[in-house]
Amino acid sequence: MAMSPPTALWWCASVNVGQWPPWFAPPCGRPYDEFEMNLDALPHTVLLILAELSVGSLAAVLIADARGMVKSGFVKLSAAIVVIAAALALLSAWNIGSGDLEGYRLEEGLFGAIRSCIAVFLALTLLYAALAFGEQRERSLMVGAVAVLAGLVSIGVLAYQVSPPAWGYEGVLLSFIAGTLALGLVNETMILGHWYLVSPKLPGKPLQELTLLLVVVLAVQGALLVLNAAIPARETPESAAVLAGSLGSNPAFWLRVSVGLVFPLALSFMAWRSSLEHSMMSATGLLYIAVGAVFVGEVLARGLLFVTGSPV
After folding, report:
1. Helices within the chain (DSSP H only)
2. For position 63, what pLDDT does the model report?
3. How many CA atoms lie within 13 A of 271 on its CB side?
4. Terminal C-alpha separation, the chain
5. How distant, in Å, are the alpha carbons of 27, 108, 158, 164 from that of 168?
């Protein structure tokens, strides 16, 4: 819990800072205002997470539906979730409009393009959902594929907007695409697992394939994290936010690695093994935990981007 300024002054006056080890000494030498957490990047972080979730979920449900082995109820529920997430992403896009986030430089002039791209994506997802609910599977697959392409364009524009401080646009784009697939796959595999709890005789291949693909995506995401962390950013944002600091000494970075990548990778692998044995209840339970871990990892990753310039 943060101390109020009078409490902080009393604390600094009542302790002998010189007796503390340097790595544990209370930060009494810095102005109190420096410890306020900057919230300027919060709307951008929310927008990125919602865009990744909506595009990734649509891609995942199309992969499952294209195999022709999932129930129409799963497709309809997923379509509704995608539409809601896309609508929230568009709403978030209307709430951003600053070219500088406490020292983090954005590519200006792209706010209108971002809103337009997400609006097109939302319109296509609405059409996809209407076709899915109307049991027009072939048309819904075609429209859904076009919607995914429109969503990836939105992700690409968002990546370009936040790429100036990073080492390159490629690193940010690959990080965002990997995050999109990870969020979408973990969300859809968890939802799909519930259908096996109701109908245990469903073919196991859809869940097996999606969980295996999730394992591969998380492994690729880990490799991209190592690459992006190893290449220094072009600009280091001057920020006093909580997550600011070099990656190696930043606890949030190691949380992103352990909780946001290693932990869900292990959970997804165990869920895949469980699905091979047709232990769908165990697989679904593991995926429940993986959903939370992947979401936490993505939030930490985007937060670290805005304070370090590294797309981890």
Report:
1. 5-14, 42-66, 72-93, 111-133, 137-161, 169-198, 205-230, 251-257, 263-276, 280-308
2. 95
3. 32
4. 28
5. 35, 17, 14, 7
**Least confident window among 137-141, 213-217, 236-240:** 236-240
Residue 18: pLDDT over 60:
no
Q: Which two tokens stand for residue 115?
A: 């809103």
Q: Domains of the chain by range and CATH? A: 39-308 (1.20.1630)
Interatomic CA distance for residues 45 and 195, integer angstroms = 32
Among left, alpha and beta (phi > 0; psi -120 to 50; other), residue 103 is left
Could you read off the pLDDT of 108-147 as tens digits, one per residue?
Answer: 889 999 999 999 999 999 999 999 999 999 999 999 999 9
Name the nearest CA neighbour of 263 among 230, 279, 286. Answer: 286
Chain centroid to Cα 285, Å, comes to: 21
Residue percentage of the chain with pLDDT more than 70:
83
Total-model pTM: 0.85
Q: What is the CA radius of gyration of the chain?
A: 22
The tokens for 31 are: 């102005």
Structure tokens given for 79: 């379509």
